[in-house]
Specification:
about 625 residues; five-stranded parallel beta sheet; disordered N terminus; alpha/beta
Length: about 625
């Protein structure tokens, strides 16, 4: 018989509370089949993603936001609002106006190692010199005559078309997409599911179907600072048609050269069709073909005369967009007082760089199409938008003991043993106090703690036999309601999922505010934490162990044995043997010279006393000793 001296058997007592159901907001690096999808979103790209001129700055006090011209009317901010499980803390907006393909690397760096379920990308317009085309073909204000202006426009169109036709630019595009998948996407197919979709948007054609007899064919885009007649370009139908063709070609190439390279994980969103009847110079539109009337939404693009909600501007010397428009404005008339300021009435910096970009209404259409693409991909790839509030499942955790010595009692507090549920209950006390540590009075070497952004906490405790108990809280909690919610949810997990066995579960739902919790037993060192040494595992309680050689009569107690002791009444090993303590790494000494790591490795022995000794001192034979 094996007895542990000074044992204090504590019952596990909990009280039940009622609570609301929480959304699961887990670390996107590690996925679960029942995770609400999507919960994380990263937006990358250029001004068509940043939303320059659409509404107001998302954070008016942030110079980085203003430098990149990130606006609250942009499609990423509107798409985020359409994705019910993506909250502000799981939305990363790094798109930057003026960025070319080469700027994607810096955007990825600023993501800071995060990975996401949904990534959106709108990029390459600046690489293809779209702003050069607009300045040369629409807003050429130099008094050079219409023929010269048309020649400048044709040169800009030809240059843009040549870049679009160059395979080198598309190879660069592919490299940037590969880097996005490498550094920002979740590439491991947890549970045989794909977890990240990259949604690439195209661009929208600027003009309705051109017609030589429409309202724009013999007129020019209004220029609020026009001082003499003839400033700006006559918007001939063939020029508009060529500009539209450039956009169509870019969209076709994105689909054939980029999306087709990884069709399972990339989706193309055709934003162009959403702009039908809302472009410049729409057929039949004669009153306001340029959409310049205040709050006009008949046209979804801005022009120089469009009234913007914002006027403040932080320059970006690296912006290809600003570089072009700075060059464009270099010949605008200046004041004569020598201060180089533009005369009143000329466009400010934000007005210039916002031209031919979508208004908030245009971004709303794009956001809706992004949401549709994400929903369809989720359905095709087996993801749930709203999972069950709680899911329980079995694990491969081996040898879960009936009772576990949580506190040895050799020094300090008296010995304490608990059921498997009770050990997780001790972890529950920590996480529901918004702490993240090994519970007090327990050997810190027996466990590991892993933390993450937003107060994410995972605590694990190794148990003799090859398993570990763990609990996960995905964010910090505070206030009476959140603390009570923690006690409620973790109680439900312990009593209905773990159930004193090799089980685990998570507790979630649809409310985005309460934290998500997961708990149970799994294989030792299966979590993403520092390795727990087998020399310091929490030991099985062998108080009720019965030796194969008899129950014994207890003389070892009289001999003052401390820790493990057992009695054999027959055979070569008849008598009392005292272990130094209950841990297998501190071996009892007598005659037989047995060791856990050499004699208890899943071996069927010829000697009854070997199995008996392994059970008494090592918790039985096990593969962990091999």
């Amino acid at each position: 018989m094996v007895v542990f001296k000074g044992a204090v058997i504590l019952s596990y007592v909990v009280s039940a509370f009622c609570g609301t159901i929480a959304t699961r907001q887990t670390d996107p690096q590690t996925q679960d089949i029942n995770t609400p999808w999507p919960i994380t979103y990263i937006a990358l790209g250029d001004s068509f993603a940043a939303g320059i001129g659409a509404g107001k700055y998302v954070t008016p006090t942030d110079d980085e936001v203003k430098r990149c011209k990130r606006f609250d009317g942009s499609y990423p901010t509107q798409a985020k609002a359409l994705l019910p499980h993506v909250d502000d803390g799981h939305f990363t907006f790094q798109a930057c106006s003026g960025d070319v393909l080469g700027g994607i690397d810096a955007q990825i760096t600023k993501v800071g190692g995060k990975r996401a379920h949904v990534i959106t990308l709108s990029i390459s317009g600046n690489d293809f010199k779209f702003s050069d085309v607009v300045s040369a073909c629409v807003y050429n204000y130099l008094p050079t005559g219409d023929a010269a202006k048309e020649a400048d426009c044709n040169a800009a169109l030809k240059k843009s078309a040549a870049i679009i036709a160059d395979e080198a630019i598309w190879n660069t595009y592919k490299q940037k997409v590969d880097k996005i998948f490498s550094d920002v996407a979740i590439t491991k197919d947890w549970f045989n599911l794909k977890w990240t979709v990259l949604v690439i948007t195209g661009y929208a054609k600027f003009f309705g179907v051109p017609d030589n007899n429409d309202a724009c064919s013999k007129t020019r885009f209004p220029m609020p600072f026009a001082l003499i007649p003839g400033q700006g370009n006559i918007m001939k139908a063939n020029i508009r048609a060529t500009m539209n063709t450039l956009v169509e070609t870019v969209n076709q190439n994105i689909q054939s050269k980029i999306v087709a390279s990884n069709p399972d994980r990339i989706r193309f969103v055709d934003i162009d069709s959403g702009f039908e009847t809302h472009r410049f110079c729409e057929k039949g539109e004669t009153k306001d073909p340029f959409g310049l009337k205040e709050q006009a939404n008949n046209v979804w693009f801005t022009a120089l005369g469009t009234a913007l909600e914002e006027t403040s501007f932080v320059p970006d010397s690296n912006s290809a967009l600003e570089q072009e428009w700075n060059a464009w404005s270099s010949n605008l008339p200046k004041k004569t007082n020598g201060d180089n300021d533009l005369i009143p009435g000329l466009p400010n910096e934000l007005q210039k760089t916002s031209v031919f970009h979508p208004k908030t209404a245009g971004h709303k259409s794009t956001a809706s199409r992004v949401k549709d693409a994400v929903d369809l991909w989720a359905k095709q790839n087996g993801h749930n938008g709203a999972p069950p509030p709680q899911v329980c499942f079995g694990t491969d955790a081996p040898n879960i003991p009936n009772r576990i010595i949580s506190i040895p009692g050799l020094i300090g507090p008296p010995q304490e043993t608990v059921e498997p549920n009770g050990l997780i209950a001790k972890l529950r006390e920590v996480v529901c106090s918004n702490q993240c540590k090994i519970p007090d009075n327990m050997d810190a070497r027996a466990g590991a703690v892993a933390t993450g952004d937003g107060g994410r906490c995972e605590i694990s405790l190794g148990v003799q036999g090859g398993s570990e108990a763990y609990i996960l809280r995905d964010r910090s909690i505070s206030g009476t309601d959140q603390v009570q919610d923690c006690w409620d949810r973790t109680l439900a997990l312990i009593t209905t999922c773990v159930n004193n066995g090799a089980n685990e579960g998570w507790r979630g739902g649809v409310d985005p505010n309460p934290a998500f919790y997961q708990a149970g037993y799994r294989k030792l060192n299966a979590g993403k934490h520092a390795t727990i040494s087998q020399d310091h595992l929490l030991q099985k309680d062998l108080s009720n162990f019965q030796s194969v050689c008899g129950k014994g009569d207890g003389p070892c107690q009289g001999n003052g044995c401390q820790g493990v002791w057992y009695i054999c009444q027959a055979g070569d090993y008849k008598g009392c043997y005292c272990g130094r303590d209950s841990r297998f790494s501190m071996l009892p000494g007598p005659d037989h010279k047995l060791q856990c790591h050499t004699d208890c490795c899943n071996t069927v022995t010829n000697n009854w006393y070997t199995n008996d000794w392994c059970a008494a001192n090592c918790g039985g034979v096990s593969s962990q000793f091999c």
